Amino acid sequence: MKGSIRKRGDSWQIIYELPRDTAGSRKQGRQTVHGTKRDADAKLREILTALDKGAYITPTKETLGAFLVHWLEAYGATNTSPRTLKDYRGIVRRYLIPVLGDTPLVALRPGHVQDLYAYMQGRGLSPLTILHTHRLLREAISYAVKWGLLGRNVCDSATPPRPARTEMAAMDAETVERFETACEVSAFGDLFKVALRTGLRRSEILALKWDSVDLEKRTLRVVAGLHRLPQQGMVLLPTKTAKSRRQISFSQEVVDILRSIRGSQLVSQATLGPAWNSTGYVFTRPDGRCLDPEAATRAFTAMARSIGRSDLHFHSLRHTHASLMLAAGVHPKVVSERLGHSSISVTMDIYSHVLPGLQEDAVDRLEKLLARSRV
Questions:
Q1: Predicted TM-score (pTM) of this structure
Q2: Is there a domain that residue 370 lies in?
């Protein structure tokens, strides 16, 4: 491939020969380089090398912001759940477009991405938020490479901050007792008790329907999550992964709670008549409609504060379930399956703070076993 450089005012124009088109006609490419002649020489060599290797990308004037909007509609809308797409759009709207939206896609460099992370840190955003932004941008740019718009993914050369490991807030047995006493006077008390005893996520327990519950066998199937989405209201969505779709066993205590709920619903159904909404949900409003996730969270937060534990969140019920099970000697694989984690390593990583106590208990058991063998 051949190329040349010529001076044009305060800049340089590089001209290079492109591969012949399908009709066999010759074509030329032209780019303007602002800087020195050495900069122009370097750019020309870069282009000619890419042409020789078949890796040349035709320049486009599309900005990163325009590409991200297109990518969200072309990829995100068909390959992600509505909840994930909502999160993606939020990241693009709040962080990426305001800072990098006007940058030409082909001009995007690792330095731009690294500057974005520094800007986000300067605004006080958490390392976890920056990491989520990095992952989204990296995924989007990977499609720009696949679609022939870029030659490489610049995010591979940028490094987001590493989030600090934080121990999840959970309740010990004594706190659980105080919490369940408080549940007795809450309209959401039964919901909280069952969530604590099953380890279900908020979206999963609110999506639980009677046809997924077997009171005789004391099992339930997790198949969906209930979410509130913008412009859509309450939406029932399938679980994100195959591991999340699972069957778990529950205790007689849960059986008793569920039987009580079912009895109350039958009474309400008979009393309200046509005003009763036959949604099939286990946990409902007085008229049978599904519960609002945010209402459940607000009720939990108020209850946690009432027992002096403002550090607890609804998700803490799930963490408490797992932590107490592990502390009771339940095998981590069983706990992992109940939680619907993708692998046991995920469970062990999240609940590593429980492991030291388990290690000490294991050592004590071994010593007792060896002592008996010496008698």
A1: 0.68
A2: no
